[in-house]
Amino acid sequence: FFSRRRAAEPPGRPRFGWRSPLSYRAKPDPARSHLLPPSMSIGHFDASHSAEALSILEDEGQSLLGRAHKARRELVEFAFAPLLPDKVARKLVERFPEGALREGVVGFDSFARSGEAVLGAFGDWYSLLVHAAEWRELSLQLLASLSRELGALNFELSPLAVGGYLELACQHARLFLLLGSVLAGPDSKGRLAAAAYCRMHQLVRLSEPPGWLDVSRFIVEFERPLSRLQADFTSRVRLRVADALVPLSPQLAAASDPAYLRSEAVLSPLCPPPKLPGSAAAAAAAAVPGGSGSLRSGRPSEERSSEERDVAHEPPPLLAHLGRVRLWAVYGFLLCPEELSQPGAVELLVAVLRGMYVLPVYADYSILPHTEFEAEAKVVARWIAKKEDAKRFPGLIRESRLAAFRHAPAARASARASLCTKLSLLLSHALDSPTSLASRLPTLVATLQLTRAEVEWWVSHAGAAPKEVPLREREALDRSLFDPATVQALLRYACLLRRLVLREAPVVASSAGTRLSVARLHVLEELLSQLPREKAALPPRAELLLSELPVHLAAAAAPDAQLQGLRLNVLRLVYELSAAPCAALLRRAEALRQLLPELHRLSLLSSAIDQPQRLVDEACDLSPLFASEAKFMQAVYAGALSARPSDCVALLELACAGGVRRPLVDECLGRLSGRFSELLSQTLAALSSRRSGSLGSVAPPGAEASMQAALPKLCALAAALDQSPPLELAADGAATAAARLLPREWMGERLEEHLQQAVRGM
Known about the structure:
Helix content is about 70%, strand content about 0%. It is mostly helical.
């Protein structure tokens, strides 16, 4: 599996891992790293190998999610009748998986004549099921290993280790819920396609397809996907979601308060953010008089270096991952409902469910989380040990659904408005001082991450109304809270910031390289000098990785530095230090506790040097919006065409960066072309009327007002097209090749077409 995954990876293609600003996947340096042996069981890896396995599995899981979404859409749209007569299709499903389709069935001859057509139509689907079944086993092994081997799950100290662990579990759930939506039910098209492929393979190739036993078992088990997932995670993984997230409850409540995000100091490029209640930073600030929060707290605040002030400007780890933490909580307790017995777990789940009534799975597919937690009393009693809590639980779930429907839309609308202000300030600051981008990179990435989370929430909730909510509540919902105008503004600012980072990439890389090779190297050496006894107690591999880090940092300022090895070593070291054998050392060694956040800082800065495009594309990944083509085209894009056509250029740029389907891009370009011609026609008609009026003719009523409305939009659209970088259009299978669109040339072609039409009409 792993050797095939590495061999099949196209050279130079960016691979993305879990959606964190700190997790950047890169191929390990063959001269310095250990590639995963295909035959080795993940359950027997040490912490270093677990870090590598996690990186590869998350990349592969993300690829499988994209393939599953595409296959689901194609199966729903596929016309089975020409290849599978009705009786043949019914018998294939009824006798699955043991019974074979016999030759006497009506329509069998027609089915047999479609041999290569059936194999070609369903071959990709069958291949996806084979890979998903294999990935499932490896993922469960790794998650079980991490559940045993990781020590205290402290998200503040090590968001990369804890986040990677929970994100893999979340990714596992999303993938198999998505596949289960195609496999579940008696009329399952996924089951029918797999059964038809197997029977045709027997007829044409005279053997069952490779892996059929595993695939058939997988299909049967995932007829009820959530029940199967809960059985897997209860018996094999024992996901420690309560250990990881319950300590974050006070911070989560504070960060979810709209008033917190409205604060001027939050996500500001000019001043440090306020501490979240209950965080380690807030406790340290309260313990130290004047609480500077600097890395070297013994120095007076006024003497801190500019580097320390930049560190103080970094947002809290929870804020950067706020949207993901909410999803981890809901998915984690769905996968392991027995974790609700832990103190504070029910309160955390209810608090998160008060902020959502739809749980996104992938793209346009979602489930209703409150409904999934509504179970019979005896089932809830197995989840929650205390009888009083078990009796209260159903009522809390019902109340949280109603509270989410009543209050969450207003809170999230306020958050989107606040983020528009934050992004605008960040953009202004970066335009005024491009050299500050490297020092404010954590704030920039955190703001883009929050923007993505809010857009995903809007996509999944706009137009959704659970039937369990009373009709009068659904009718009373203020639809203006889902106005796409703020989403449109968020996407505009995100696109402009992405474009700025890519344009100033050499400046950012130079500044980040200097910070790594001088300031961060000095901090790292100072921390290591405080660890003589602790280093001796560390595992040998961790000690070796620590000794190599200064060499990596010293080389960061070199031209064309490639820092994949640094990031991979950071990932390995984080898991070494987060493992159970190092738990006692972390509790008593302050320098080790400061080292873990420093490692995340190094990983982020290094990505700004050699992977700036990957960094911003990860932070600006809005695939759920573009996958929900109806909401994107009918709400966001249509609103931009009408009110602010120049925003359509930003939307197209983000869509092309996300690799959306070519037909969607072509439709966007077609509608933009029509709007461009309309604005041009209105402007030229108004100018013609003005000239006629100056010659004594009577101008049509409203001509001047029409020009005043159209001309600013036309000028803004022309400027946006003129300043836009080239758009990379993805290939659409074998029918359409990849291409590059130059917006300025495209605008020139539209102008020429319009002038030719005007001349012909004269």
